[in-house]
TrEMBL record:
Entry superkingdom: Bacteria
UniProt gene name: tadA
Assembly behavior: Homodimer.
Active-site positions on this chain: E54
InterPro entries, per database record: APOBEC/CMP_deaminase_Zn-bd, CMP_dCMP_dom, Cytidine_deaminase-like, tRNA_aden_deaminase
Top EC class, one word: hydrolase
Catalytic activity: adenosine(34) in tRNA + H2O + H(+) = inosine(34) in tRNA + NH4(+)
Molecular function terms from GO: tRNA-specific adenosine-34 deaminase activity; zinc ion binding
Cofactor: Zn(2+)
Protein name: tRNA-specific adenosine deaminase
Boundaries of every CMP/dCMP-type deaminase domain copy: 1-128
Keyword Transmembrane attributed: no
Amino acid sequence: MSQEYFIELCLEQARKAYHLGEVPVGCVVVKDNEVIAQAHNCVEKLKDPTAHAEMLALNVVSEHLGEKYLYGCHVYVSLEPCVMCSYAMILRRVERVIFLAQDYKHGGVMSLYNLFDDTRFNHRVRWEYLPVQEAQELIKKFFKNLRDQR
């Protein structure tokens, strides 16, 4: 399977979140070119501010693999991970993260903070920003609609 395939799955999850009234973030975790988990934000549904797509997907992967460390896993996420999700990926020893839109208010990778490149941590997560206009537009549209409702 190709990187484009994983990106499309990630965007499908973000679209699901959008249509459910959640912040439109989708996440796909891949190991050995196989999709292990897919998730989208469920903060509103679960009434849990930590129910980010990345956290939910990482939990599924750990359960599936029976491991706390996720060596060899690649995480595709539609929005730059926040500090909580970034640090969770460091703790879980994720190999690589690919994100599709920057998060200028909460980004933990490049926009606001840079946790993945911080040499004080004992694990470095490789990362790549692959801009996809739809991912950024979903976020903009979601928050514009939210503001308009108020």
